[in-house]
User: What shape does this take?
Amino acid sequence: MANIRTFIGVKASDRVTRNVTSVARRLEATCDGYRWVPPENLHVTLNFVGDVVDIEVPELCKLIKQAIEPFKPFEMSLHGVSGFADAEQPRVVWIGVDEGADQLKSLFETLADVLHHWGVNKERNEFVPHMTLGRLARGGRWNDELLALIHKLRHHDGGFCQVKEVIVYSSFMERSGPTYTPMATLKL
Assistant: This one.
């Protein structure tokens, strides 16, 4: 038996992903102090599960599928680049979810209840639907050029798409960064 680092998320359409990737590349060109997310890893995280024993993954996916049955497909739009903890000292650079944020929050809450019974503690911070573009690297630092571009992109329209599924991912850390692999794709 092996543990699989697991999380739940949604993907944007290819068109939206291309738009967001071009924004991330512009940001990357201003600052090398971040680990920028490659296009194939871009997603909106709903819930982080943590380590799951490999033989328990099918049962977890079954519970998630049952929990999301009441949900229907919905429109999601990405809008506005910002940062956590804040846009002036960003440890994480992201683009937010505008339309569809309420549905993502409902999915988050529903899944948090399922995961709580699974033994996963609920997030302490408020859930802010977003797509991470980059994380401050160890020893990295932001610069004025990056901060100016984040400010300029605070109203960027990342596009919209329909969310039709929730994905249960495995995450494996490699030298080049994490690799995310879908373990289950569950239709809304």
The domain at 3-187 is CATH 3.90.1140.10 (Cyclic Phosphodiesterase; Chain: A,). DSSP finds four helices and nine strands in the chain. The first helix runs from residue 14 to 30. The beta strands are 3-10, 34-36, 44-53, 74-84, 92-97, 130-136, 157-163, 165-174, 177-187.
